[in-house]
Amino acid sequence: MSIQGYYLLPHPPIILPEVGRGEEKKISQTTKGMQRIAEEIAQKAPRTIIIVTPHGAMFRDAISLSYEDAISGNMGRFRAPSVRMEKTINKELTKRIYELASESGIPAVLATDSMLSRYGAEFMLDHGAMVPLYFIDRCYTDYKLVHITYTPINDYDLYRFGIAVSNAARELGEETVFIASGDLSHRLSHDGPYEYSPEGARFDNDFLRLLQDGDVMAFFKMDRALIERRRMRKAVGGDTARRS
Fold first, then answer.
1. Which residues neighbour 240 within 8 Å (Cβ) at sequence distance 6 or greater?
2. Cα angle 34, 37, 39; round to 5
3. Amino acid 182: pLDDT
4. Those residues with Cβ within 8 angstroms of residue 160's Cβ, 6 or more apart along the chain or in another chain
5. What is the mean pLDDT of each run of 10 residues along the chain (244 residues)?
6. 3-state secondary structure (DSSP) of residue 66
7. Which domains, ranges and CATH numbers included, belong to the chain?
8. What is the model's pTM?
9. What sign does the CA torsion over 37, 75, 10, 66 have?
10. 48-53: strand order across its sheet
């Protein structure tokens, strides 16, 4: 069984009513989109949801795959501690993804609670994962999770890692959907959490156009200077982890 669907979903905490407290009404179209996709995923009824987030414990030089029996988190950081969830991790699929990535020379680690604690990081479900899952859980909860935090290694290795994810799901016969959680440039407004950039919209539009066209190779030809100018966070040094 191959991956049944691929989704790019945003993760603004304000979209949750418990966080937005009325402000979420300003992005009602995004809410409707999230609800529609949640309903679509519920119809597919995957046994596992694979989610890639930029806000987990990030290593500078290795992709991090959460590897415990379960992972939990809450939105206390955003003044909504009542929003909490705990998800069972599909350890078999997680480990197979790691093995295929390692066999291909792609740097990856199985991140456990004890390992992350050595670097002062917590093993927890981050808001990059929780926001999309919040909407999915309204429609469907009978799934396990593969929780992945990407790393700023070269684009080609990240692409090859995606192939490893797909091959692992097919090899194990897992019914899965894949979610890339990301807010693109983050730099479209002076009121946003990051510094405004007039090139933010250009980056977002170019990226979405290529995604809609399914033109994988064109991603490797995007303006590198533009990509670097919209970059807003960095991971810390090798053999260390951080959460942001």
1. 59, 60, 119
2. 110
3. 85
4. 101, 104, 106
5. 90 95 93 97 98 94 97 97 98 98 97 95 96 98 97 90 97 97 60 54 71 72 60 42 45
6. strand
7. 3-242 (3.40.830.10)
8. 0.85
9. negative
10. 3-9, 176-181, 48-53, 144-149, 63-66, 108-111
